[in-house]
Each structure stands twice: as structure tokens, then as C-alpha cells.
Write a structure and sequence with these properties.
Layout (H helix, E strand, L loop, with lengths): L2 H21 L5 E3 L5 E3 H17 L4 E4 L12 E9 L1 H5 L6 E8 L2 E9 L4 E6 L4 E3 L2 E2 L12 E4 L11 H11 L2 E3 L4 H9 L5 E5 L3 H13 L3 E3 L12 E5 L4 H12 L8
Parallel strand pairs: 3-4, 10-11, 10-12
Antiparallel strand pairs: 1-2, 4-5, 5-6, 6-7, 7-8, 8-9, 12-14, 13-14
Helix pairs in contact: 1-2, 4-7, 5-6
Amino acid sequence: MNEFLTVAIEAATQAGAALRTEFERPKKISYKGEVDLVTESDKHSESIIVSKLRERFPDHAIVAEEGSRGAAAAAKYCWHVDPLDGTTNFAHSYPCFAVSIGLLEAGEPLAGVVLNPIANELFTAAHGEGAYLNGNRIQVSSVEKLATSLVATGFPTHQRANNRNIYYYWEFTMRSHGVRRDGSAALDLCSVACGRFEGFWEFGLNSWDTAAGMLIVQEAGGRITSLDGAPYQPGARSILASNARVHDEMRDVAASIAGGAARSLP
């Protein structure tokens, strides 16, 4: 196992242990906007991760949800950290959240770790070395058609009235076995990687939401693009992840919606 992945696992494990302990306690919640909440646990988890990364890789840049360190654009190595992906779930004591740590080298995913501390599921990947769940190799599903697929998406906590994803949600619901919305993009991507979901799409995600999960999907044999099929970079306007087999079909559905095939709900 390479050094980058080893350190990321150590950081995620330590942060996850803190989150697991704090999950049972009363939550101290503040707001970054009208509905975009943050807990003290977000900040605690991030401080644990950043301290570990700073100790081992002082020259690396870090882009994190609650604050960034170093000039990311100029750095060869840049860590993208979501210390608590699924904060709303955590604040409501819904046990679906994760620690997500991804490393990019010159913009390309190099290592990724996503930990669900409640389910004790650790997803890991390093470029060219495969994807793993708790040390066991994982692969995407072999489902060939959207009609027999289970897919997932997410919705923003802010500017909901300006987000058109409800149209995509309707259309994909009608064309698949179902659409799940669990509130953690990092875990949704990992569910694609291990074959629980055949596909996942979302709008407006940040780089720390996807930098780890996208590599885990790719190393498990999946495919990642933007919804329009363009190459995906963490932080892009949209993301489409799949088992590769249903990717083109999902992209075509998305194109039909974007082109005006679904403008209103019945």
C-alpha cells in the first residue's frame, strides 16, 4: 500500500472514531447560510484530518469543506477533504454519513478513502491498484439496462428552487427500479463502486464531495463523466457515475431532460 493511501486511512479512521463517539451526543449546530448547517463535529473531524496530513505532507495543499490550506492551483499534490459528508443526516441522528479524503496529483485522482464510521465500512483506492471495501476487492455491478437498475441522486440544501434535479429525479424514477436519496454523495459513489447502485448523478457538488469517490468508482471498473458526457473534474457542475454498462443510457436520458423533454410534473 502506498504512503499516501496509508496516511489517508489513518486520518479517516481517527476522524471516524471521533464522529462515532459524538454521534450519540447532543449536537451543537450552527449555520453557514439559511439552511446549510455545520456541527462542531465537522470542525473536530477536519482538524484531526488536516493535522495528520500537515504532519506527514507539509508541502501539500489541502482543500477542505470548512477551510483550505495552501495554494491548490499551484500545488502538485492537493488533498480534498470532506470531514463529515452528510452533515444534515448526522445532525438529525440519521446514520448515513462519511469521512471522505481524496488526493489529486496535477488534477488527476491518486488516492481515495471514504469511511462510514457507523457501518464500519472503509472504501479505499489507489490509482492502478483497484478498489476495496474493508480490504476486499470490489467491482461495479453487471446490470446492463437502466430499467433493471437502482440509481441514486442528491439535492442541495440551498437554492433548491433554482435546481432542476427534480425533473431528472422524476424521469429516472420512471425508467429504473428506483432512485435513492441518502444524503451523502461520497457513500453514493462507493455504492456504485461495490455494485449496490448502478448509477449516480448530481448537480453542484464540490471537489471534496467527489475526489475520493470518483477514484473508487473508476478503480472498481465504473465510469465517471459530467451529465453531458464530458470528462469530469472534481468540482464540475454535474457528475454521472455508473457501472459503465448503463452509462450511455443514463447520459441519453439526461440529455433528453436538458433538451426539454421533461419540463413539468403531472
